[in-house]
Design brief:
about 400 residues; about 25% helix
Length: about 400
């Protein structure tokens, strides 16, 4: 396909409850100025589409969608377009896990294997290379806890298929350092499914999607989403073939919309549905992060670059400190999708950015600064490269 250059960005649907948006430093930006900046950044970086919500006083004051859900058909993106949530899924999972902790269904510090009826390595999975037979000769899995899974300190790689030998293994001693791991979250999902006797899709519907009226959200693809489908796009602006998930995966299978995810995020940042003490634990430092980068070879090399913001991890989310108080953040990335969210808890100011473009993360630094005055997001650690540096 030919390189598609997006020249005219369409604002298809929007909600803005005022004429301006408050930033963390006390300044404001007008809605018109913000709209213009988003259009400019999308054009400069060739971002196919973007859906964004901003929160003041922990309530949404600005929700808009720009660009296209499909650049070939020029179908506009709107607030009800179904998007791949990618690792935003992990926030929903953490929310569910902490509910179960409050109900004493599971303990944060009890080894997960103690909840199973037989050794972990004896469970059989229908999916190829999904089980835990790789760990038969390494019993370190026996000490892994829910806390380790939620703080990415299990010692597992992100995904086993990223490893040269395609096998699950420990990269370091469990509980000793941070390293992002979808495998850890999936292990915790498996144990919870065994405990509750339900699949994760059913659990999500019962505990999050139905209570919050997230009617276009699911951990697996549903036929009702077909007419609302948004495509992910590569760096040239060409759409990828949709990945319609059939198996729920707490680490990244969720489909959602800006409307739905704004409902969830509003509930999350208010601590709605969570025990107060557990919400405090979730959003405060559990483990310091010293790695130079979050992914790649430098994820195992330590440095001091992020000491000024006291970079770390809570439960399912990154945490940092700023002159304007504490903040927690979460990224999401998949082929054709780049997302980011951050909430400054003391200021009660937050933002969700969801893009259907491999280029989406290249505008995060500029967009965060202009929209809410966030100059503290560790964009280099997150492996984001601004479009003007590429």
């Amino acid at each position: 396909m030919k390189n598609i250059c997006i020249i005219f960005i369409v604002i298809y649907s929007f909600t803005a409850f005022g004429q301006s948006v408050d930033r963390i430093d006390g300044s404001k930006i007008s809605v018109d100025s913000l709209d213009n900046k988003i259009n400019y950044l999308m054009k400069q970086a060739n971002v196919s589409g973007i859906a964004i919500s901003i929160f003041n006083n922990n309530n949404p004051v600005y929700s808009k969608s720009f660009g296209y859900s499909n650049t070939l058909t020029k179908k506009p993106l709107n607030d009800n377009s179904v998007l791949v949530a990618a690792s935003f899924s992990k926030m929903v999972f953490t929310y569910i896990v902490l509910q179960l902790v409050a109900e004493k269904v599971i303990d944060l510090d009890k080894p997960l294997v103690s909840y199973l009826k037989k050794p972990l390595t004896e469970y059989q999975f229908t999916e190829k290379n999904r089980g835990y037979q790789d760990l038969e000769n390494d019993n370190r899995y026996e000490i892994i806890t829910a806390r380790m899974c939620l703080t990415h300190t299990t010692g597992f790689p992100n995904w086993r298929w990223f490893e040269e030998d395609d096998k699950l293994k420990f990269l370091f001693e469990p509980g000793t350092r941070y390293r992002y791991s979808g495998e850890g979250l999936f292990l915790l999902q498996f144990v919870i499914e065994q405990l509750l006797g339900k699949d994760y899709e059913t659990i999500s519907q019962e505990r999050v999607f139905k209570p919050l009226q997230m009617n276009q959200s699911s951990q697996i693809w549903k036929e009702q989403f077909d007419s609302l489908l948004s495509f992910g796009h590569n760096s040239k602006g060409d759409p990828y073939k949709p990945n319609k998930r059939t198996k729920p995966n707490a680490a990244g299978s969720m489909s959602t919309t800006l409307t739905d995810f704004t409902k969830f995020y509003a509930a999350l940042i208010k601590g709605k549905g969570l025990k107060k003490s557990l919400f405090k634990e979730m959003t405060n430092l559990q483990v310091r992060i010293k790695s130079i980068r979050q992914f790649g070879p430098l994820s195992m090399v330590d440095g001091t670059d992020n000491d000024p913001i006291q970079l770390g991890y809570g439960f399912g989310i990154g945490v940092l400190s700023s002159p304007y108080g504490k903040a927690f953040f979460k990224e999401g990335n998949d082929e054709g999708w780049q997302h980011y969210s951050i909430c400054f808890t003391d200021k009660k100011i937050a933002i969700i950015i969801m893009t259907n473009s491999d280029n989406g993360d290249s505008i995060f630094k500029e967009l965060l600064e202009i929209a809410i005055g966030d100059k503290f997001t560790p964009w280099q650690w997150e492996n984001y490269t601004p479009f003007y540096l590429k």
